[in-house]
Design a protein that fits this description.
- The protein is mainly α.
- The chain has two domains: 92 residues; 93 residues.
- The chain has nine helices and four strands, in the order H-H-E-H-H-E-H-E-H-H-E-H-H.
- A two-stranded antiparallel sheet has the order 1-2. Strands 3-4 form a two-stranded antiparallel sheet.
- Helix 3 crosses helix 4 and helix 6 runs antiparallel to helix 7.
- Pfam families: Caleosin.
- One of its GO terms (molecular function) is calcium ion binding.
- This is Peroxygenase 4.
């Protein structure tokens, strides 16, 4: 790890205090050593921890860290380590999104509810694959190709990993994804399954 990118103790405390915004909580799972900085290796480890394969985890690590590093490090020089500073994650908010996070990274309940009011037509508390596509299209801003790609990647990975046996992405799952608690639960579930397999051998 590059020492020049290490956060001070005050920075870390700022991330962990009660004023921490929800967007920070969303990404903190991927800060595997809890130092306030997320490196590509940690993004990779985080995706592996929630059950993603090597290829998807590698893609995510490159795509996310290369895309977000500079945005979260204002005034700092370019780094080939592509660190993401958790305290500044709100600066990386892309266009063509749902606006469930505001510009400070805070959760906006009305925008979250709007997703399901407008697009959950088959089931009031879940999205089908087609409804998810409709939702993504409705968020697109003209010529914001980077935002389209970011939104598509985020939601499609979530759907791929978390849809139920009926192909539904449930509201409570989406809510848990926004505050990061979903990732912690997915890691626990994966560990439990691994232990169960080991005990059966």
């Amino acid at each position: 790890m590059a020492t020049e990118d290490s956060s001070s103790l005050s920075d870390i405390e700022g991330i962990e205090n009660h004023d921490q915004n929800v967007l920070q909580k969303h990404v903190m799972f991927f800060d595997r050593n809890k130092d306030g900085i997320i490196y590509p290796s940690e993004t990779f480890q985080g995706f592996r921890a929630i059950g993603c394969g090597y290829l998807l985890s590698s893609f995510a690590a490159i795509f996310i860290n290369v895309g977000l590093s500079r945005k979260t490090r204002p005034g700092k020089s370019f780094s080939l380590h592509f660190p993401i500073e958790v305290k500044n994650i709100h600066l990386s908010k892309h266009g063509s999104d749902s606006s469930v996070y505001d510009k400070q990274g805070r959760f906006v309940p009305s925008k979250f509810e709007e997703i399901f009011v407008k697009h959950a037509k088959t089931h009031p508390n879940a999205l089908t694959s087609d409804e998810l596509n409709e939702f993504l299209k409705s968020n697109r801003e003209p010529k914001d190709y980077a935002g389209w790609l970011a939104g598509f990647s985020e939601w499609k990975i979530l759907y791929l990993l978390c849809k139920d046996e009926h192909g539904l992405l449930k509201k409570d799952v989406v809510r848990a994804a926004y505050d990061g608690s979903l990732f912690e639960q997915m890691e626990k579930d994966k560990e439990s399954k691994k232990k169960a397999v080991t005990s059966d051998v």
